[in-house]
Give the backbone structure.
Amino acid sequence: MRLTVMSLCLWLLCTGQIWAWDTYGGEGGQQFAPFDQINPGNLEQLAVAWHFRTGDLNAGFRRKRHSMQTNPLYWNGLLFVSTSANWAIAIDAESGQERWRFDAQLPKDIGYSESSSRGVSLWHGVSEICPNRLFLGTLIGQVFALDAITGEPCTDFGENGRVDLTVGVGEVSFGDYGITSPPAVIGDQLIVGSAIGDNRAARLERGLVRALDVRTGQTNWSWDPIPVSENDPQYSSWADDSALRTGAANVWPPISVDAELNLVFVSTGSPSPDFYGGERLGDNHYANSLVALDAATGAVSWWQQLVHHDVWDYDIPSQPTLTEIRHQGQSVQAVVVATKTGMIYAFDRRSGEPIYEITEQAVPASDIAGERLSPTQPISSFPALTKLNAVTEDDSFGLVWFDKRSCRKIIREYRSEGLFTPPSIQGTIMSPSYAGGVNWGGIAIDSAKQIGIVNVNQIPALVHLIPRDDLQIFIDAYGEDGWEFAEQAGTPYYMARKIFLSELGLPCTKPPWNKLVAVDLEHEEILWEVPLGTVRDLAPAIVPNFEWGAPGMGGPLVTAGGLIVIGATTEHVLRIFNVVSGQELWKYDLPTAAMATPMSYMHNGEQYIAVAVGGHDNLDMPRGDHIFAFKLRE
Protein backbone atom coordinates (compact mmCIF):
# COMPACT_ATOMS: atom_id res chain seq x y z
CA MET A 1 0.00 0.00 0.00
CA ARG A 2 1.48 3.36 -1.07
CA LEU A 3 1.15 5.42 2.14
CA THR A 4 3.56 8.02 3.51
CA VAL A 5 3.40 8.87 7.21
CA MET A 6 1.17 11.86 6.56
CA SER A 7 -1.16 10.11 4.14
CA LEU A 8 -1.41 7.14 6.52
CA CYS A 9 -2.85 9.44 9.18
CA LEU A 10 -5.25 10.89 6.67
CA TRP A 11 -6.18 7.45 5.35
CA LEU A 12 -7.20 6.35 8.84
CA LEU A 13 -9.64 9.28 8.87
CA CYS A 14 -10.83 9.14 5.31
CA THR A 15 -11.55 5.43 5.03
CA GLY A 16 -13.83 5.83 8.04
CA GLN A 17 -15.72 8.53 6.14
CA ILE A 18 -14.66 11.15 8.70
CA TRP A 19 -13.28 13.17 5.81
CA ALA A 20 -15.09 13.67 2.54
CA TRP A 21 -15.00 16.18 -0.29
CA ASP A 22 -18.69 16.83 0.27
CA THR A 23 -18.98 20.53 -0.53
CA TYR A 24 -18.01 22.63 -3.54
CA GLY A 25 -14.29 23.42 -3.46
CA GLY A 26 -13.68 21.22 -0.44
CA GLU A 27 -13.47 22.47 3.14
CA GLY A 28 -13.96 26.24 3.27
CA GLY A 29 -13.83 26.39 -0.51
CA GLN A 30 -10.03 26.16 -0.25
CA GLN A 31 -9.73 23.83 -3.25
CA PHE A 32 -7.16 21.96 -1.16
CA ALA A 33 -6.83 18.20 -0.67
CA PRO A 34 -4.91 17.07 2.45
CA PHE A 35 -3.24 14.12 0.73
CA ASP A 36 0.37 13.60 -0.31
CA GLN A 37 0.24 10.07 -1.73
CA ILE A 38 0.49 11.57 -5.23
CA ASN A 39 3.56 13.82 -5.14
CA PRO A 40 6.40 15.11 -7.34
CA GLY A 41 8.38 11.91 -6.79
CA ASN A 42 5.89 9.52 -8.38
CA LEU A 43 4.02 11.43 -11.09
CA GLU A 44 5.45 9.13 -13.75
CA GLN A 45 3.09 6.50 -12.29
CA LEU A 46 -0.01 8.72 -12.48
CA ALA A 47 -2.47 7.34 -15.01
CA VAL A 48 -6.17 7.17 -15.81
CA ALA A 49 -8.02 5.08 -13.21
CA TRP A 50 -11.35 5.33 -15.01
CA HIS A 51 -13.16 7.45 -17.59
CA PHE A 52 -16.91 8.06 -17.41
CA ARG A 53 -19.17 9.66 -20.03
CA THR A 54 -22.40 11.30 -18.89
CA GLY A 55 -24.08 11.28 -22.31
CA ASP A 56 -25.00 14.98 -21.97
CA LEU A 57 -23.94 16.82 -25.11
CA ASN A 58 -26.99 19.11 -25.29
CA ALA A 59 -28.75 16.66 -27.56
CA GLY A 60 -32.28 17.82 -28.24
CA PHE A 61 -31.82 21.38 -26.95
CA ARG A 62 -32.68 23.92 -29.63
CA ARG A 63 -31.28 27.07 -28.00
CA LYS A 64 -28.87 26.16 -25.26
CA ARG A 65 -25.12 26.45 -25.05
CA HIS A 66 -23.06 23.70 -23.43
CA SER A 67 -20.62 23.98 -20.56
CA MET A 68 -19.72 21.27 -18.05
CA GLN A 69 -18.22 22.90 -14.95
CA THR A 70 -19.09 20.44 -12.17
CA ASN A 71 -16.80 20.02 -9.17
CA PRO A 72 -17.47 16.38 -8.14
CA LEU A 73 -18.35 15.55 -4.55
CA TYR A 74 -17.08 12.40 -2.81
CA TRP A 75 -19.03 10.58 -0.11
CA ASN A 76 -19.81 6.97 0.82
CA GLY A 77 -17.68 5.55 -1.98
CA LEU A 78 -19.48 7.61 -4.64
CA LEU A 79 -18.74 10.65 -6.76
CA PHE A 80 -21.67 12.98 -7.41
CA VAL A 81 -21.69 15.23 -10.49
CA SER A 82 -24.12 17.44 -12.36
CA THR A 83 -24.28 18.22 -16.07
CA SER A 84 -25.17 21.15 -18.28
CA ALA A 85 -28.63 19.67 -18.84
CA ASN A 86 -29.13 19.39 -15.06
CA TRP A 87 -28.69 15.67 -14.72
CA ALA A 88 -27.37 14.48 -11.37
CA ILE A 89 -25.28 11.29 -11.54
CA ALA A 90 -23.70 9.06 -8.89
CA ILE A 91 -20.54 7.25 -9.99
CA ASP A 92 -18.68 4.49 -8.16
CA ALA A 93 -15.48 6.17 -6.93
CA GLU A 94 -13.30 3.13 -7.58
CA SER A 95 -14.65 1.60 -10.79
CA GLY A 96 -16.21 4.60 -12.51
CA GLN A 97 -19.47 2.70 -13.00
CA GLU A 98 -22.77 4.56 -12.88
CA ARG A 99 -24.87 3.88 -9.77
CA TRP A 100 -27.87 6.12 -10.52
CA ARG A 101 -28.90 9.22 -12.42
CA PHE A 102 -31.64 11.82 -12.15
CA ASP A 103 -32.88 14.07 -14.98
CA ALA A 104 -34.43 17.41 -13.95
CA GLN A 105 -36.22 17.49 -17.32
CA LEU A 106 -35.15 20.93 -18.49
CA PRO A 107 -37.35 22.32 -21.28
CA LYS A 108 -35.58 21.84 -24.59
CA ASP A 109 -37.37 24.45 -26.72
CA ILE A 110 -36.52 27.67 -24.84
CA GLY A 111 -33.45 29.89 -24.80
CA TYR A 112 -31.10 29.94 -21.83
CA SER A 113 -28.91 32.84 -20.79
CA GLU A 114 -26.68 30.50 -18.77
CA SER A 115 -25.45 27.02 -19.60
CA SER A 116 -23.44 25.75 -16.65
CA SER A 117 -23.94 23.64 -13.56
CA ARG A 118 -21.01 23.67 -11.15
CA GLY A 119 -22.17 20.81 -8.98
CA VAL A 120 -24.48 19.54 -6.26
CA SER A 121 -24.72 19.77 -2.45
CA LEU A 122 -24.92 17.15 0.32
CA TRP A 123 -26.70 17.09 3.67
CA HIS A 124 -26.66 14.37 6.31
CA GLY A 125 -29.09 14.38 9.25
CA VAL A 126 -32.06 12.87 11.01
CA SER A 127 -35.01 12.32 8.68
CA GLU A 128 -37.41 9.45 8.08
CA ILE A 129 -37.18 10.14 4.36
CA CYS A 130 -33.75 10.68 2.78
CA PRO A 131 -31.42 11.07 5.79
CA ASN A 132 -28.65 11.70 3.21
CA ARG A 133 -29.79 14.32 0.71
CA LEU A 134 -28.30 15.56 -2.53
CA PHE A 135 -29.48 18.99 -3.73
CA LEU A 136 -29.48 20.07 -7.37
CA GLY A 137 -30.22 23.58 -8.63
CA THR A 138 -31.50 24.02 -12.19
CA LEU A 139 -31.29 26.57 -14.98
CA ILE A 140 -35.01 27.34 -14.59
CA GLY A 141 -34.76 28.23 -10.91
CA GLN A 142 -35.74 24.96 -9.23
CA VAL A 143 -34.08 23.05 -6.40
CA PHE A 144 -34.44 19.27 -6.20
CA ALA A 145 -33.78 17.15 -3.11
CA LEU A 146 -32.67 13.58 -3.93
CA ASP A 147 -31.82 10.55 -1.87
CA ALA A 148 -28.02 10.38 -2.12
CA ILE A 149 -28.13 6.56 -2.01
CA THR A 150 -30.80 5.94 -4.65
CA GLY A 151 -31.25 9.19 -6.59
CA GLU A 152 -34.99 9.19 -5.94
CA PRO A 153 -36.69 12.54 -5.10
CA CYS A 154 -37.26 13.23 -1.39
CA THR A 155 -41.04 13.56 -1.40
CA ASP A 156 -41.25 15.63 1.80
CA PHE A 157 -39.19 18.45 0.25
CA GLY A 158 -41.39 21.07 -1.42
CA GLU A 159 -43.70 19.49 -3.98
CA ASN A 160 -42.56 15.88 -4.45
CA GLY A 161 -38.92 16.78 -4.02
CA ARG A 162 -38.89 20.11 -5.85
CA VAL A 163 -39.03 23.79 -4.83
CA ASP A 164 -39.65 26.57 -7.36
CA LEU A 165 -37.53 29.65 -6.55
CA THR A 166 -38.82 31.81 -9.40
CA VAL A 167 -41.61 32.89 -7.02
CA GLY A 168 -41.03 36.22 -5.27
CA VAL A 169 -38.26 37.64 -7.47
CA GLY A 170 -40.45 39.77 -9.73
CA GLU A 171 -41.41 39.10 -13.32
CA VAL A 172 -39.32 36.19 -14.59
CA SER A 173 -38.14 35.63 -18.13
CA PHE A 174 -38.19 31.83 -18.52
CA GLY A 175 -34.64 30.58 -19.07
CA ASP A 176 -33.05 33.80 -17.78
CA TYR A 177 -33.35 33.01 -14.07
CA GLY A 178 -31.61 29.90 -12.77
CA ILE A 179 -29.11 28.34 -10.39
CA THR A 180 -25.65 27.54 -11.74
CA SER A 181 -23.63 27.06 -8.54
CA PRO A 182 -24.51 24.48 -5.88
CA PRO A 183 -26.31 25.75 -2.78
CA ALA A 184 -24.44 25.75 0.53
CA VAL A 185 -25.47 23.73 3.58
CA ILE A 186 -25.24 25.05 7.13
CA GLY A 187 -26.96 23.04 9.84
CA ASP A 188 -30.42 22.16 8.58
CA GLN A 189 -30.54 25.01 6.08
CA LEU A 190 -29.82 25.18 2.38
CA ILE A 191 -28.52 28.60 1.22
CA VAL A 192 -29.37 29.30 -2.42
CA GLY A 193 -28.36 32.11 -4.77
CA SER A 194 -29.22 32.59 -8.45
CA ALA A 195 -27.89 33.33 -11.92
CA ILE A 196 -29.68 36.07 -13.88
CA GLY A 197 -29.24 36.81 -17.58
CA ASP A 198 -27.26 40.05 -17.88
CA ASN A 199 -27.95 43.27 -19.73
CA ARG A 200 -31.49 42.59 -20.91
CA ALA A 201 -33.02 45.59 -19.16
CA ALA A 202 -32.67 48.07 -16.32
CA ARG A 203 -35.33 46.21 -14.33
CA LEU A 204 -34.66 42.47 -13.97
CA GLU A 205 -35.38 39.67 -11.53
CA ARG A 206 -34.28 40.33 -7.93
CA GLY A 207 -31.14 38.50 -6.84
CA LEU A 208 -32.54 37.06 -3.62
CA VAL A 209 -30.47 34.79 -1.39
CA ARG A 210 -32.75 32.32 0.41
CA ALA A 211 -32.41 29.86 3.25
CA LEU A 212 -34.52 26.73 2.78
CA ASP A 213 -35.32 24.10 5.36
CA VAL A 214 -33.44 21.01 4.12
CA ARG A 215 -36.34 18.71 5.02
CA THR A 216 -39.42 20.67 3.93
CA GLY A 217 -38.03 23.19 1.43
CA GLN A 218 -39.82 26.03 3.21
CA THR A 219 -38.11 29.43 3.10
CA ASN A 220 -36.72 30.39 6.52
CA TRP A 221 -35.46 33.80 5.39
CA SER A 222 -34.50 35.72 2.28
CA TRP A 223 -32.08 38.58 1.70
CA ASP A 224 -32.09 40.98 -1.24
CA PRO A 225 -28.66 42.41 -2.19
CA ILE A 226 -30.53 45.52 -3.31
CA PRO A 227 -31.99 47.17 -0.17
CA VAL A 228 -35.71 47.83 -0.54
CA SER A 229 -36.48 49.46 2.82
CA GLU A 230 -35.78 53.08 3.68
CA ASN A 231 -34.85 51.79 7.13
CA ASP A 232 -31.80 50.09 5.68
CA PRO A 233 -28.89 52.56 6.00
CA GLN A 234 -27.62 51.51 2.55
CA TYR A 235 -30.90 52.36 0.81
CA SER A 236 -29.70 55.96 0.31
CA SER A 237 -26.79 54.72 -1.83
CA TRP A 238 -29.39 54.11 -4.55
CA ALA A 239 -30.43 57.57 -5.76
CA ASP A 240 -34.08 58.54 -6.28
CA ASP A 241 -35.44 55.23 -4.95
CA SER A 242 -33.76 53.41 -7.84
CA ALA A 243 -33.33 50.35 -5.60
CA LEU A 244 -36.99 49.66 -6.31
CA ARG A 245 -36.55 49.89 -10.11
CA THR A 246 -33.55 47.68 -10.81
CA GLY A 247 -32.61 44.03 -10.32
CA ALA A 248 -29.88 41.36 -10.23
CA ALA A 249 -26.87 42.03 -7.93
CA ASN A 250 -27.37 38.30 -7.52
CA VAL A 251 -25.12 35.72 -5.88
CA TRP A 252 -24.21 33.39 -8.72
CA PRO A 253 -20.83 32.01 -7.50
CA PRO A 254 -20.62 29.24 -4.90
CA ILE A 255 -21.45 30.25 -1.31
CA SER A 256 -19.33 29.50 1.77
CA VAL A 257 -20.43 28.95 5.37
CA ASP A 258 -18.76 29.05 8.77
CA ALA A 259 -20.79 26.81 11.09
CA GLU A 260 -18.82 27.86 14.19
CA LEU A 261 -19.53 31.56 13.62
CA ASN A 262 -22.97 30.79 12.13
CA LEU A 263 -22.16 33.02 9.15
CA VAL A 264 -22.92 32.71 5.44
CA PHE A 265 -20.45 34.39 3.05
CA VAL A 266 -21.71 35.51 -0.37
CA SER A 267 -20.15 37.27 -3.36
CA THR A 268 -22.65 39.61 -4.99
CA GLY A 269 -22.82 40.71 -8.61
CA SER A 270 -23.54 43.93 -10.42
CA PRO A 271 -27.03 45.44 -10.59
CA SER A 272 -28.84 45.61 -13.91
CA PRO A 273 -27.80 46.45 -16.49
CA ASP A 274 -24.07 45.86 -16.22
CA PHE A 275 -22.71 48.58 -18.49
CA TYR A 276 -24.92 51.63 -17.85
CA GLY A 277 -25.87 52.89 -14.41
CA GLY A 278 -27.74 56.11 -15.21
CA GLU A 279 -30.98 54.54 -14.00
CA ARG A 280 -29.40 53.52 -10.65
CA LEU A 281 -27.11 56.39 -9.66
CA GLY A 282 -25.17 56.11 -6.42
CA ASP A 283 -22.61 53.63 -5.14
CA ASN A 284 -25.25 50.83 -5.11
CA HIS A 285 -24.28 49.30 -1.77
CA TYR A 286 -24.39 45.54 -1.18
CA ALA A 287 -23.93 45.00 -4.94
CA ASN A 288 -20.40 43.98 -6.01
CA SER A 289 -19.60 43.14 -2.41
CA LEU A 290 -18.43 40.43 -0.08
CA VAL A 291 -21.23 40.04 2.48
CA ALA A 292 -21.44 38.05 5.71
CA LEU A 293 -25.02 37.07 6.62
CA ASP A 294 -26.30 35.75 9.93
CA ALA A 295 -27.28 32.16 9.13
CA ALA A 296 -30.18 32.25 11.60
CA THR A 297 -31.89 35.40 10.29
CA GLY A 298 -30.30 36.49 7.01
CA ALA A 299 -29.37 39.84 8.55
CA VAL A 300 -26.17 41.49 7.31
CA SER A 301 -23.40 40.93 9.85
CA TRP A 302 -20.84 42.92 7.84
CA TRP A 303 -20.10 43.78 4.24
CA GLN A 304 -17.35 45.26 2.07
CA GLN A 305 -18.08 46.72 -1.36
CA LEU A 306 -15.22 46.04 -3.77
CA VAL A 307 -16.59 47.93 -6.81
CA HIS A 308 -18.68 51.09 -6.50
CA HIS A 309 -21.49 51.68 -9.02
CA ASP A 310 -20.38 48.93 -11.38
CA VAL A 311 -20.58 49.63 -15.13
CA TRP A 312 -17.96 47.03 -16.16
CA ASP A 313 -19.64 43.71 -15.29
CA TYR A 314 -17.08 43.37 -12.51
CA ASP A 315 -19.13 40.93 -10.43
CA ILE A 316 -17.36 39.44 -7.44
CA PRO A 317 -17.07 36.14 -9.32
CA SER A 318 -15.44 33.66 -6.97
CA GLN A 319 -16.47 31.69 -3.94
CA PRO A 320 -15.43 33.34 -0.65
CA THR A 321 -12.57 31.17 0.58
CA LEU A 322 -12.27 30.47 4.31
CA THR A 323 -8.76 30.02 5.64
CA GLU A 324 -6.32 31.24 8.26
CA ILE A 325 -3.81 33.97 7.42
CA ARG A 326 -0.75 34.75 9.52
CA HIS A 327 -0.71 38.53 9.75
CA GLN A 328 1.46 40.74 11.91
CA GLY A 329 2.39 37.82 14.12
CA GLN A 330 -1.16 36.56 14.65
CA SER A 331 -3.31 33.92 12.99
CA VAL A 332 -6.54 35.44 11.67
CA GLN A 333 -9.65 33.51 10.68
CA ALA A 334 -9.98 35.00 7.22
CA VAL A 335 -12.20 35.06 4.18
CA VAL A 336 -10.48 35.71 0.85
CA VAL A 337 -11.78 36.63 -2.60
CA ALA A 338 -9.96 37.08 -5.90
CA THR A 339 -11.71 39.37 -8.38
CA LYS A 340 -12.15 40.15 -12.05
CA THR A 341 -10.05 43.28 -11.51
CA GLY A 342 -7.07 41.04 -10.74
CA MET A 343 -6.98 41.85 -7.03
CA ILE A 344 -6.96 39.81 -3.84
CA TYR A 345 -8.91 41.01 -0.81
CA ALA A 346 -8.91 39.38 2.64
CA PHE A 347 -10.99 40.14 5.72
CA ASP A 348 -11.32 39.03 9.30
CA ARG A 349 -14.26 36.61 9.21
CA ARG A 350 -15.68 37.85 12.51
CA SER A 351 -15.53 41.60 12.00
CA GLY A 352 -15.03 42.23 8.29
CA GLU A 353 -11.91 44.28 8.99
CA PRO A 354 -9.50 44.25 6.01
CA ILE A 355 -6.34 42.20 6.50
CA TYR A 356 -4.71 43.83 3.49
CA GLU A 357 -5.09 47.59 3.42
CA ILE A 358 -7.72 49.04 1.09
CA THR A 359 -7.43 52.59 -0.22
CA GLU A 360 -9.86 54.63 -2.29
CA GLN A 361 -8.05 55.72 -5.45
CA ALA A 362 -9.17 58.12 -8.18
CA VAL A 363 -10.45 56.56 -11.41
CA PRO A 364 -11.48 57.94 -14.84
CA ALA A 365 -14.81 59.76 -15.20
CA SER A 366 -17.57 58.90 -17.66
CA ASP A 367 -18.38 61.01 -20.71
CA ILE A 368 -21.84 59.43 -21.12
CA ALA A 369 -24.86 61.67 -20.66
CA GLY A 370 -26.88 60.58 -17.66
CA GLU A 371 -24.06 58.57 -16.12
CA ARG A 372 -22.30 59.50 -12.86
CA LEU A 373 -19.54 57.23 -11.63
CA SER A 374 -17.89 57.01 -8.25
CA PRO A 375 -14.77 59.23 -8.38
CA THR A 376 -12.79 56.53 -6.51
CA GLN A 377 -12.62 52.76 -6.27
CA PRO A 378 -11.32 50.50 -3.44
CA ILE A 379 -7.87 49.16 -4.31
CA SER A 380 -6.18 46.37 -2.35
CA SER A 381 -2.62 46.77 -1.13
CA PHE A 382 -1.93 43.19 -2.26
CA PRO A 383 0.08 43.32 -5.52
CA ALA A 384 -2.20 43.16 -8.56
CA LEU A 385 -2.29 39.81 -10.33
CA THR A 386 -2.45 41.38 -13.79
CA LYS A 387 -1.62 44.61 -15.59
CA LEU A 388 -3.95 47.45 -14.65
CA ASN A 389 -2.45 50.23 -16.77
CA ALA A 390 -3.75 51.69 -20.02
CA VAL A 391 -3.43 49.62 -23.19
CA THR A 392 -1.13 51.45 -25.62
CA GLU A 393 0.14 50.81 -29.14
CA ASP A 394 3.30 49.37 -27.58
CA ASP A 395 1.14 46.57 -26.19
CA SER A 396 -0.15 45.53 -29.62
CA PHE A 397 0.50 42.03 -30.92
CA GLY A 398 0.19 40.30 -34.25
CA LEU A 399 1.70 37.31 -36.02
CA VAL A 400 2.02 39.22 -39.28
CA TRP A 401 2.36 42.93 -40.05
CA PHE A 402 -1.22 43.53 -41.22
CA ASP A 403 -2.61 41.76 -38.16
CA LYS A 404 -0.60 43.89 -35.77
CA ARG A 405 -1.42 47.03 -37.77
CA SER A 406 -5.16 46.44 -37.38
CA CYS A 407 -4.73 45.95 -33.63
CA ARG A 408 -2.71 49.16 -33.32
CA LYS A 409 -5.41 51.05 -35.22
CA ILE A 410 -8.11 49.92 -32.77
CA ILE A 411 -5.93 50.86 -29.78
CA ARG A 412 -5.47 54.35 -31.24
CA GLU A 413 -9.20 54.84 -31.76
CA TYR A 414 -10.53 53.42 -28.49
CA ARG A 415 -10.52 54.93 -25.02
CA SER A 416 -8.06 53.29 -22.61
CA GLU A 417 -7.00 54.86 -19.33
CA GLY A 418 -6.31 51.76 -17.26
CA LEU A 419 -8.48 49.90 -14.79
CA PHE A 420 -12.04 51.28 -14.47
CA THR A 421 -11.99 53.10 -17.81
CA PRO A 422 -15.77 53.49 -18.30
CA PRO A 423 -17.81 52.30 -21.29
CA SER A 424 -18.18 54.93 -24.00
CA ILE A 425 -19.83 55.62 -27.34
CA GLN A 426 -16.34 56.03 -28.81
CA GLY A 427 -15.48 52.53 -27.67
CA THR A 428 -13.51 51.45 -24.59
CA ILE A 429 -10.76 48.91 -24.09
CA MET A 430 -11.59 47.05 -20.86
CA SER A 431 -8.48 45.71 -19.17
CA PRO A 432 -9.02 43.40 -17.36
CA SER A 433 -12.04 42.33 -19.37
CA TYR A 434 -15.50 41.45 -18.10
CA ALA A 435 -14.24 37.84 -17.91
CA GLY A 436 -11.34 38.85 -15.64
CA GLY A 437 -8.74 38.78 -14.26
CA VAL A 438 -9.89 36.03 -12.00
CA ASN A 439 -13.30 34.51 -12.63
CA TRP A 440 -15.30 31.79 -10.88
CA GLY A 441 -12.26 29.49 -10.60
CA GLY A 442 -11.23 31.53 -7.57
CA ILE A 443 -8.20 30.90 -5.40
CA ALA A 444 -6.81 27.60 -4.05
CA ILE A 445 -5.06 27.89 -0.70
CA ASP A 446 -2.54 25.77 1.19
CA SER A 447 -3.00 27.29 4.65
CA ALA A 448 0.06 25.56 6.12
CA LYS A 449 2.33 27.06 3.47
CA GLN A 450 0.32 30.33 3.35
CA ILE A 451 0.31 30.01 -0.46
CA GLY A 452 -2.59 30.88 -2.72
CA ILE A 453 -2.85 29.83 -6.38
CA VAL A 454 -4.91 31.61 -9.04
CA ASN A 455 -5.20 31.47 -12.80
CA VAL A 456 -5.51 34.90 -14.36
CA ASN A 457 -6.83 35.87 -17.78
CA GLN A 458 -5.01 38.76 -19.45
CA ILE A 459 -7.01 39.48 -22.61
CA PRO A 460 -8.75 42.88 -22.81
CA ALA A 461 -12.25 43.41 -24.22
CA LEU A 462 -13.90 46.05 -26.39
CA VAL A 463 -17.12 47.69 -25.18
CA HIS A 464 -19.45 50.23 -26.86
CA LEU A 465 -22.52 52.02 -25.65
CA ILE A 466 -24.75 52.68 -28.67
CA PRO A 467 -27.48 55.36 -28.66
CA ARG A 468 -30.76 53.60 -29.19
CA ASP A 469 -31.36 55.11 -32.65
CA ASP A 470 -27.83 54.35 -33.86
CA LEU A 471 -27.72 50.56 -33.73
CA GLN A 472 -27.78 50.12 -37.50
CA ILE A 473 -25.15 52.83 -37.89
CA PHE A 474 -22.91 50.85 -35.55
CA ILE A 475 -23.52 47.59 -37.41
CA ASP A 476 -22.75 49.25 -40.73
CA ALA A 477 -19.49 50.61 -39.32
CA TYR A 478 -18.27 47.67 -37.22
CA GLY A 479 -20.21 44.68 -38.52
CA GLU A 480 -21.92 42.06 -36.38
CA ASP A 481 -19.28 39.34 -36.42
CA GLY A 482 -17.92 38.59 -32.96
CA TRP A 483 -19.99 41.22 -31.17
CA GLU A 484 -22.39 40.38 -28.37
CA PHE A 485 -25.29 42.85 -28.42
CA ALA A 486 -27.57 43.60 -25.46
CA GLU A 487 -30.73 45.67 -25.47
CA GLN A 488 -30.46 47.24 -22.00
CA ALA A 489 -34.17 48.08 -22.23
CA GLY A 490 -35.20 51.07 -20.13
CA THR A 491 -31.92 52.89 -20.79
CA PRO A 492 -30.88 55.19 -23.68
CA TYR A 493 -28.23 52.75 -24.92
CA TYR A 494 -27.65 49.36 -26.45
CA MET A 495 -24.40 47.65 -25.49
CA ALA A 496 -21.95 45.79 -27.73
CA ARG A 497 -18.93 43.90 -26.43
CA LYS A 498 -16.37 41.34 -27.52
CA ILE A 499 -12.98 40.00 -26.54
CA PHE A 500 -10.20 42.04 -28.21
CA LEU A 501 -8.99 39.67 -30.96
CA SER A 502 -7.13 40.27 -34.20
CA GLU A 503 -8.25 39.33 -37.71
CA LEU A 504 -6.46 35.99 -37.28
CA GLY A 505 -8.41 35.24 -34.10
CA LEU A 506 -5.57 35.73 -31.62
CA PRO A 507 -5.55 38.38 -28.88
CA CYS A 508 -4.47 41.87 -29.96
CA THR A 509 -2.21 42.38 -26.95
CA LYS A 510 1.07 40.73 -26.06
CA PRO A 511 1.12 37.35 -24.29
CA PRO A 512 0.93 35.70 -21.86
CA TRP A 513 -2.87 35.63 -22.24
CA ASN A 514 -3.39 33.43 -19.21
CA LYS A 515 -1.04 32.72 -16.37
CA LEU A 516 -0.81 30.71 -13.17
CA VAL A 517 0.19 32.85 -10.19
CA ALA A 518 1.35 31.86 -6.70
CA VAL A 519 1.00 34.38 -3.88
CA ASP A 520 2.31 34.56 -0.32
CA LEU A 521 -0.74 35.39 1.80
CA GLU A 522 1.32 36.18 4.90
CA HIS A 523 3.77 38.63 3.33
CA GLU A 524 1.55 40.03 0.55
CA GLU A 525 3.89 38.98 -2.25
CA ILE A 526 3.72 37.32 -5.63
CA LEU A 527 5.99 34.28 -5.41
CA TRP A 528 6.03 33.26 -9.06
CA GLU A 529 3.96 33.32 -12.23
CA VAL A 530 4.12 31.17 -15.36
CA PRO A 531 2.12 31.12 -18.63
CA LEU A 532 -0.77 28.67 -18.40
CA GLY A 533 -1.42 26.74 -21.58
CA THR A 534 -0.47 27.02 -25.23
CA VAL A 535 -2.41 28.12 -28.32
CA ARG A 536 -2.34 24.60 -29.79
CA ASP A 537 -6.14 24.21 -29.68
CA LEU A 538 -6.98 27.90 -30.02
CA ALA A 539 -5.04 29.19 -33.02
CA PRO A 540 -4.98 28.08 -36.67
CA ALA A 541 -2.81 25.03 -37.33
CA ILE A 542 -0.13 27.16 -39.01
CA VAL A 543 0.57 28.99 -35.74
CA PRO A 544 3.52 27.56 -33.76
CA ASN A 545 2.64 25.95 -30.43
CA PHE A 546 4.06 28.76 -28.31
CA GLU A 547 3.56 28.81 -24.55
CA TRP A 548 1.69 32.10 -24.58
CA GLY A 549 -1.02 31.09 -22.18
CA ALA A 550 -4.54 30.23 -23.30
CA PRO A 551 -7.69 31.84 -21.88
CA GLY A 552 -10.32 29.82 -20.12
CA MET A 553 -12.43 29.19 -17.04
CA GLY A 554 -12.07 26.96 -14.00
CA GLY A 555 -9.87 26.80 -10.96
CA PRO A 556 -6.82 25.08 -9.52
CA LEU A 557 -6.61 22.25 -7.00
CA VAL A 558 -3.74 22.28 -4.49
CA THR A 559 -2.70 19.16 -2.57
CA ALA A 560 -0.63 18.47 0.54
CA GLY A 561 1.72 16.65 -1.82
CA GLY A 562 2.92 20.03 -3.10
CA LEU A 563 0.98 19.84 -6.37
CA ILE A 564 -1.24 22.18 -8.37
CA VAL A 565 -3.70 20.40 -10.67
CA ILE A 566 -5.43 22.51 -13.32
CA GLY A 567 -7.05 22.48 -16.75
CA ALA A 568 -8.97 25.77 -17.08
CA THR A 569 -7.71 26.81 -20.52
CA THR A 570 -8.94 26.38 -24.08
CA GLU A 571 -6.11 23.87 -24.58
CA HIS A 572 -7.22 20.24 -24.24
CA VAL A 573 -4.76 19.45 -21.44
CA LEU A 574 -4.71 18.75 -17.70
CA ARG A 575 -1.50 19.90 -16.02
CA ILE A 576 0.28 19.46 -12.70
CA PHE A 577 2.73 22.06 -11.36
CA ASN A 578 5.03 22.27 -8.37
CA VAL A 579 3.37 24.57 -5.82
CA VAL A 580 6.67 26.02 -4.57
CA SER A 581 8.50 26.61 -7.84
CA GLY A 582 5.79 26.76 -10.53
CA GLN A 583 7.60 24.09 -12.58
CA GLU A 584 5.33 22.03 -14.82
CA LEU A 585 5.70 18.39 -13.74
CA TRP A 586 3.07 16.42 -15.67
CA LYS A 587 0.39 16.81 -18.32
CA TYR A 588 -2.25 14.68 -19.95
CA ASP A 589 -4.02 15.24 -23.29
CA LEU A 590 -7.81 15.39 -22.99
CA PRO A 591 -10.55 15.02 -25.61
CA THR A 592 -11.56 18.68 -25.08
CA ALA A 593 -10.93 21.48 -22.60
CA ALA A 594 -11.43 20.97 -18.84
CA MET A 595 -13.36 24.15 -17.98
CA ALA A 596 -13.86 23.02 -14.39
CA THR A 597 -12.04 22.79 -11.06
CA PRO A 598 -10.46 19.40 -10.20
CA MET A 599 -10.90 17.65 -6.84
CA SER A 600 -9.14 14.83 -5.03
CA TYR A 601 -10.34 12.04 -2.77
CA MET A 602 -8.94 9.06 -0.89
CA HIS A 603 -10.74 5.75 -1.43
CA ASN A 604 -9.63 2.37 -0.04
CA GLY A 605 -6.20 3.78 0.72
CA GLU A 606 -5.59 5.22 -2.74
CA GLN A 607 -5.61 8.89 -3.73
CA TYR A 608 -7.56 9.88 -6.83
CA ILE A 609 -7.73 13.14 -8.78
CA ALA A 610 -10.96 13.77 -10.68
CA VAL A 611 -11.96 16.46 -13.17
CA ALA A 612 -14.87 17.21 -15.50
CA VAL A 613 -13.95 17.65 -19.16
CA GLY A 614 -16.75 19.33 -21.07
CA GLY A 615 -15.42 22.08 -23.30
CA HIS A 616 -17.32 25.37 -23.53
CA ASP A 617 -19.60 26.59 -26.32
CA ASN A 618 -18.98 30.28 -25.52
CA LEU A 619 -15.26 29.77 -26.10
CA ASP A 620 -15.82 27.74 -29.29
CA MET A 621 -14.42 24.59 -27.73
CA PRO A 622 -15.66 21.12 -28.75
CA ARG A 623 -18.34 19.76 -26.45
CA GLY A 624 -17.49 16.99 -24.02
CA ASP A 625 -19.28 14.82 -21.45
CA HIS A 626 -16.32 13.29 -19.66
CA ILE A 627 -15.30 12.67 -16.06
CA PHE A 628 -11.69 11.53 -15.72
CA ALA A 629 -10.21 10.03 -12.56
CA PHE A 630 -6.46 9.46 -12.12
CA LYS A 631 -4.45 7.44 -9.58
CA LEU A 632 -1.01 5.87 -9.28
CA ARG A 633 -0.44 2.63 -11.21
CA GLU A 634 0.23 -0.51 -9.21
Observations:
- The longest strand covers residues 330-338.
- The mean pLDDT is 95.
